[in-house]
Amino acid sequence: MKTKQELLKIALAIYDAISELGSAPSGTIYAALMNQIDLQTYQDLIQMLKDIGKIKEVNHLLIAVR
């Protein structure tokens, strides 16, 4: 199980990747992380990023909000 600090680092890395690219398919991002976190944790992190207004999701495409 990951600590809260480790999960925060992963969430920031997800945001940084999406922000740098402008957008990215959610499945591609999860595939890169699936050896680090389970699907539920990934979905929770994505929801957190959406809730705080850092990303939006359209048809499984994650888009950085600037």
Structure description:
This protein has a single domain, classed as Orthogonal Bundle (Arc Repressor Mutant, subunit A). It has three helices and three strands, in the order αβααββ.
Which SSEs are present, and which pair or pack?
Blueprint: H1 4-21, E1 23-25, H2 26-33, H3 39-51, E2 55-58, E3 61-64
Antiparallel strand pairs: 1-3, 2-3
State the main characteristics.
alpha+beta; three-stranded antiparallel β-sheet; 66 residues; 3 strands; Arc Repressor Mutant, subunit A
In short:
The chain is of the alpha+beta class and about 70 residues long. About 60% of the residues lie in helices and about 15% in strands.
Number of helices: 3
Order of helices and strands: HEHHEE
Number of domains: 1
Query: Could you give the count of β-strands?
Result: 3
